[in-house]
Amino acid sequence: MWNDPIGEVPPGFSCQRCGNCCRGPGDVVLFDGEIEALAALLGLDVPRFTEDYTRLATDRRALSLAEQPDGACVFLLPDNTCRIQDAKPRQCRAFPYLWRSARLANMCRGWKNAESRTSPLVTPS
User: Fold this and answer.
1) For residue 28, what pLDDT is reported?
2) For 64, which of 27, 46, 48, 53 could close a Cys bridge (C-beta 3.0–4.6 Å)?
3) In 3-state terms, what secondary structure has residue 76?
């Protein structure tokens, strides 16, 4: 994911706070220091945070944030805000600038809005 070459973000991209990037399938891998920061933000010790809010990543090499029953991130609130905004994992902060998948880009309202403003108009001949 982090090593895949990606194109530019469309000019005028602005996050619309739709929360769709937090509903997409896949792992939110936690890097060094992130579990400790998240646990501290929530007032939990590391073992309790790990038990309650993480799962083994698909590749079984790291921990990932857990999901709600509908597949959304465990920290996505009903109003599409992030409960852990002040300690948001690097992977979340990097979307869509340093990584993205076609599926998530297609779900992203900010991405769609920016593309619609920059796509050339097609006129019938």
Assistant:
1) 95
2) 27
3) strand
